[in-house]
Every structure is written in structure tokens, then in C-alpha cells.
Amino acid sequence: MPLYIVRNDITTMAVDAIVNAANESLLGGGGVDGAIHRAAGPQLLAECRTLGGCRTGQAKITKGYRLPAAHVIHTVGPVWRGGGYGEQALLESAYRTSLELARANHCRTVAFPLISSGVYGYPKDQALRVAVDTIGAFLLQNDMTVYLVIFDRAAYTIGSKRFADIAAYIGDHYVTDPTDSEAAQRRHGRAFAAAPTEPQNPALQSQREARARPGESFSQMLLCKIDERGMTGAQCYKKANVDRKLFTKIRSDPHYNPTKATAVAFAVALELSLDEAGELVEKAGFAFSHTSKTDVIVEYFITHRNYNIFEINEALFAFDQSLLGE
């Protein structure tokens, strides 16, 4: 079910389907459209001629021919005209109809380009937000692995006002010299120190303390937290951007320790406080630190009570950090 943002050439992705950012004729063009047609060979164009074109915001499917992918899903994104002509709704529809078509054709892995962000002029930061939000919403209800393929990392900048507060928070909390980390923690409180919260329910707090046994494993604590939140396992691993098979492995093996990225993702999915998140991550053998830019960005989102894993990963990608999940 995870969503990965990757830097790659979409024509080389060995997935069930790649998505082509096509034009309404479906007869090829420039950019990723032209690259996909060149890699697939002339048979792709021949099949596209039989489809009768495609409206903006809709999608159609063909075989992949010479591509590593079995299928190509052709979708038409909107041309950017300033944002006042329904561009966002059309772009959301392009992603959503492509995903629905992939599901209908039993595709388990799908790779998307950043639709409309090339010659169609959709601002790249806004295009990325639409992609992440729309794909993320779909994945919360469906089991599929989706790759959002950014061909040229240098073409995507973080100049948006949306990231200005995060950049300022990094500037205030990120420690570039590990030898300064102790002094930084004295200035800011310990790394991932909890922000003030409302008083806890004494009965619930007592239950948590009883469950947080010194010898408790990551798996045991995770399952207890899921129960406390009244969540199902599926709800939790989907919110964590983690695959079902990995969650099953963690649940069935009390001694299994995940990667730090996975442990943090579960802390986010459970909407834990900073202190609770630190405790869960420690059970996996890791610790938060202001010497890690990833940790500081996650801290920013938790302190602002934003637990949307896809938005967090969007910010991590924007600041060139590894993503959360498996």
C-alpha cells in the first residue's frame, strides 16, 4: 500500500503499470509522453490510434509492449491557466481515474510521473501536493504500491511559502555539528521533548504505564498502542505508509525490530505525542536527535499535530531527506 516518491526514469520501472502524461489525442508528444512511446515501440502508437483520444482528467489503458511495465495508463492533465479554471479538480481526476483503472485491471504496482508539471505549466510544488494528497487518499482505502517518479530532482524547488515555516523550524533546531547536540538540547529541551498537553486521564495513564514494561518489545508496544487508539491493524499500517506483509511480520514476531523510518511512521500513524513517539522508537533501538534533519522535520509536524504521513513525506522529499515508511 505504500506511496514512494523516487527519482528515476519512469520508462525503466518494472511495475504492473506506468502512467503516461498524455495529450488528448493519445498519439504521442514531447516530454514523458514521447519518452514512453519511444521506449514502448510503434505498437503502442498503433493501439492508441484505436482508443479515440481521451478527455482531460480521464484515463485509458493499453499494453506496455517493449516497456518493463505490463500496461500503460494514459491520462490527460490540465494545462495551467493561473489556477482559476478548475485545474486542480481536473488534475485530481487524472490521478484518481488512473488509480481506479489500475485497480480494475488488477494492477498491484503503479508508477506515476508528476502530471502536468512539464510543458503544461502546472507549478511543480502545487502539482506534487495534488499528487500526494490524491494518491494518499486512495491508498488509505486500497492495497496498492504507488511510485511517484520525479525524473529531475533539480527541477523541483522548495521555494513555496508552504515550506517556509518548516525551513525556519529546521534553522532553529537542526544541529549540524554532533558535538554541539548536548548544548542544543539544553537550549531546546531534550530532542523530541514533549510540548505541553492537556492533563491525561488518570485511568488511561495508569493503563499506559502498566503496559510500558521495561522488557516490552517494539512489536508488543505497537500492538498495545493500536488497541489503546481503538484502531485496526489495517488502519494503522495504511496510515503509516507500510506494506501489509511487513506489518504481519512485526505483529507475528515479538522480537522483530523495524528500521527507524518504519518505527517513526508507526508513531505518526498512531498520532503519538513527542514523548510517546520517542518511547516507541527507542523500543526499536533508535533515538530521535536534532542532528538529524529528518527527525527535526518530523518533530515539526508532530508539534503542529499534523499526522498525515503523505504530507510529511512530501516535506521530507522537498528537503532531500529519506521518506517514512518501510
UniProtKB/TrEMBL annotation:
Organism superkingdom: Bacteria
Record-linked PROSITE patterns: MACRO
SUPFAM superfamilies: Macro domain-like
Disordered: annotated segments: 192-211
Domain Macro: 1-167
Signal peptide: none
Compositional bias segments (type: Polar residues): 198-207
One MF term in the entry's GO annotations: deacetylase activity
InterPro entries, A to Z: Macro_dom, Macro_dom-like
Descriptive protein name: O-acetyl-ADP-ribose deacetylase
Organism: Candidatus Gemmiger excrementavium
Lineage: Bacteria, Bacillati, Bacillota, Clostridia, Eubacteriales
